[in-house]
Amino acid sequence: MWDNKDLDTLVDIAVAAGQEILAVYNDVTQPEVTLKDDNSPLTDADRRAHQLIVHRLSQFTPDTPVLSEESEGIGAQERLSWRRYWLVDPLDGTKEFVNRNGEFTVNIALIDNGDPVMGIVHVPVTGVSYLGIKQPAQQLAGAWKIDEAGVSKAIRSRACQKNKALAVVASRNHRGDILDKVLDELGVAFKGVEVVSMGSSLKICLVAEGKADLYPRLAPTCEWDTAAAHAVLAGAGGEIVDTDFQPLRYNQKDELLNPFFLVLGDTDFSWDALLLPLLK
User: Structure pTM?
Assistant: First the structure.
């Protein structure tokens, strides 16, 4: 059972990782960027945040393994044997980091039996953090936004209203014909669509705090991209589902790619009736 002291420790780890990232971000020289095998960018900030998080989590919960995007030497067979583990993206939004727009985050999630039960998303540039706990038996279950001054406020996803415009989060870099068709249909079903662009896992956090209603992600992502914000969203009353409207789960297969998914703020709304015909 987690208590407030444990949550403070988790926040401290994410904030400390953010400081490692800012040390590189605020350097007057342009950060050196290398490409990994999958052509995704890697910087010294990724490495420094990774090393700090893995070290601190290993001290915090010695018996819980840690899987980071930058981890090496952890095979699928070993990983699939884990029931409970930390899933980390030490710097989500490396492209945003390189482009210096501030929309990058530190993501730390606790996965239990495929379910993201706790997560923190920290924004180094602003100092804002999003924290969520999903566990049903957990007295601390819920979601919170911690502002730049360290003040915590509970957040909830919002209900959809067809007599109003729908706020839809969309990626700047990943659009396509299917998404355009979905947006067109949503504009007919609601009083128009307001498209909000945002980088990294902050897109999911916008839905969690009730500033957007829907985020259709119809492009590839990895499990560490979504897990922490998924826990925040679930604690706030929302959910992430695949295009068959089944809850998104983690560490269920050899690869760590997510299926295409939908981030839903209002889980009581009949999204399936509206969107399933468009996604098949």
Answer: 0.93
